[in-house]
Amino acid sequence: MADKPLLPDLMKAHGISRRGFLKYCATLTSAMALPPMLAPKVAHALETTARPSVIWLSFQECTGCTEAITRSHAPTIEDLIFNVISLDYHHTLQAASGDAAEHAREQAMKDNWGNYLVVVDGSIPIGNPGYSTIAGISNLDMLKETAEGAAAIVAVGTCAAYGGIPHADPNPTGAVSVSDIITDKPIINVPGCPPIPIVMTSVLAQFLTFGLESIEVDKLGRPKAFFGETIHDRCYRRPFYDKGLFAEGFDDEGAREGWCLYKLGCKGPTTRSVCATVKWNNGTSFPIQAGHGCLGCTEPDFWDNGGFYKPLSVPAGEYRKLGLAAVAGGAALGVAGGAVGRANKARAARAHETVDAHDLEKKT
Amino acid sequence: MSTNSDNLHGREAVDLLKSHISTGNARPVLQEIHAALEALLATGTTSTIDLGAIPFGPGDERLLDEVLGKGELSATLDVLGTSHVEETGIPGVWRIDHFDQNGETLSRFVEVTFLPEILKTQRADAEAGLARLAIRLEEHDSRTH
Amino acid sequence: MNNPYFDLLMWARGPGFDIALTILIGGILLRVVEIVVLGRKKDLAKPKGSPVSQGIKTIFTRSVPRKGMMKDAPVTYIGGYVFHIGFFIAFFFLGAHIALVDDLIGLNWPAANKALIETAAAASVIALLALAWTRVKDPVRRALTRFDDWLVLVLSGLPLVTGYVAVNQIFGDPTLMMAVHILSAELLMIAFPFTKLMHAVTFAMARYYNGSIQGRKGAES
After folding, report:
1. Which pLDDT score, from 0 to 100, does residue C129 have?
2. Distance (Å) from the alpha carbon of A248 to chain B's nearest alpha carbon
3. Domain co-membership, A63 together with A186
4. Which end of chain B is more exposed for a tag (fewer CB within 10 A), N or C?
5. Which tens digit of pLDDT belongs to each residue from B73-107?
6. Does residue A261 share a domain with residue A197?
7. Best to test chain A binding among C5, C11, C24, C25 (most A CBs inside 10 Å)
């Protein structure tokens, strides 16, 4: 790693002034959701830490996460690749292919054993390792082999973090998440389908500048800075929810007025992400602002959580058939119960003996 | 503005409407600025408020600009894209907006300080400047002689 | 990797709700049909008044306290009203509940705002506490109270409290609290046909019956 120049030296070599470096640090600090007072610490970290080697593994995925991360505006992927990390293997972005690419990975692992960072997107099929291979190596083998010398792993996207769409019922490939396989390395999950681009780059940047300890994660392994609150909490349509104003269809009056999408199946109340504040495409918009409810893509099993267009309060099971059966069954049991009651009454009437005062006196 | 707003259509009308959308966050930010300015005068502590860290709508921006107003000093930095550094109508309160090479906003801050750090010449840059000046003088000398 | 809270919520929305609904509907029908089938001995005497109109009238008039009772048992009457009206508002005017009814039977109406619903829910819970207090305080009522009564009291209060906690995220994970809220409502549904909660259905039958007996005798009910 000693041969990798530090960022300020790199910037100087490219004719970028110290002011440029300060601007870069201020922006990076803001993007990492850190208080502005920490900007000098970010600068210090960048001045003293060598750019670590990063190996990016893409397994059962749609390349949506990679597509998304290349759209990050602050820090940009170029920022990260050129300034903060040394991206030594990413089979979609790298120029090398075939054997040369695999050699790059092996070389990076050898040179940085115990210190490199592994980023994974996509789930891992364990039903049959042949379902997904790279250069003839199964995803399972490549993950195990590469993870062994890693300092830490960042699982990017819901597939890598929780199994995602490949894991959805009936899960034909036996897809699992990174944390289902690797249990002896620190893993940070950055879920989303795809995750918000700047959330991916910011988590990477924070990890690389301040280290693993600086990132506080929740029970599902997600950084609290980006997954601490639900979308519902921060949604600009929340006032309509509180007023009881809901869109009932995608083209009705309420939809045009921008009312709450809860009744159209919005999963905002149970979905943790910063979509409503950080937004997408350089802060332009997010799904709810575009008029569609949240699908809940940062949560495990979001694909199987009861239908995208069913409100959260609406039952997801087979209650209609059961309800009809209950009506018939209840009525039948009621008739039977009534009949038993009538029979008892009749028997009691038959067994009835008239008692007069003399009888009672006799008894006592 | 209200006089010609009736004649606006399409995108312009939407933009005008949008400029009034407020999250209600401008007031607490202004209070924070007030406290920061008091601290600056009392103890010399400088503070920075990251406007990207809180939901801040165009309506909030409008209120912030209205209350702070325009000041005496405005600078444009040409460094990794442009940056605007402006003192507001409240001396000691600065707005710093960073843009990238495509003009997209990178980050936005309110700084409460006597002079924003980024305006000062940085030591490393001055050192580089000294070296550059020496080279230029040498070149100049060799040309004139 | 799974989120156990989501699994619980999905169970509550899926099999849990199916079970609860089946027991609720089946149980109500069982009990109502049983009562109707059991029947009453035919009264062969010629009616002196109008049993039907007196019966129907009684269904409503018994909702108004009798003279002097308001003074004798103010907590019971006021608490009773507040609880019933509050529970009704909180249940039928929250958007999420309307969505549920809409999905079940296709009926839809406007939702109320949060302030109204939360005031109603809070008032209901306070009323429940007051009613519980009179059960402990009054020796007659204490003697009449059985386990069933305490169970019903707690089961009616739980959905109100858990709903408030879930919507306002007072504590706990929002997904977990939503699951807990739905489960608490399902407990209420399951207990409904087999406890005194059943009065919500049978009150009309009982009042009509009492009223019609009086009407038949030519008396005002």
Report:
1. 96
2. 24
3. yes
4. C
5. 999 999 888 999 999 999 999 999 999 888 888 88
6. no
7. C25
Evaluate if residue B4 carries a pLDDT over 60.
Answer: no
Touch of C by B (3+ CB pairs closer than 8 Å): no
Q: Is the distance from CB of C75 to CB of C126 less than 8 angstroms?
A: no
Share of chain A above pLDDT 70, in %: 95
Mean pLDDT value of segment A355-362: 80
**CA torsion, ordered A114, A115, A121, A127, to nearest 10 deg:** 0
Sign of CA dihedral A59, A63, A65, A71: positive
Q: Tokens 């030296």: give the residue.
A: A9
Q: Which of residues 231-260 of A touch B (CB under 8 A)?
A: 234, 236
| Å between C90 CA and nearest CA of chain A | 12
The H-assigned helical ranges of A244-281 are: 253-257, 275-278
Establish if A157 belongs to a structural domain: yes
Q: What is the pTM of this model?
A: 0.78
Question: Residues C45-52: what's their mean pLDDT?
Answer: 85
CA B39 vs CA A273, B34, B46: distances in Å: 35, 9, 8
Whichever domain contains C200, its CATH number is 1.20.950
**How much is the ipTM here?**
0.85
Average pLDDT rounded to a whole number, residues A152-172: 95
What total number of domains does chain A contain? 3
**Interatomic CA distance for residues A322 and C25, integer angstroms:** 10
Q: Which residues 221-280 of chain A have a CB within 8 Å of chain C?
A: 221, 230, 232-233, 241-246, 248, 260, 262-263, 269-270
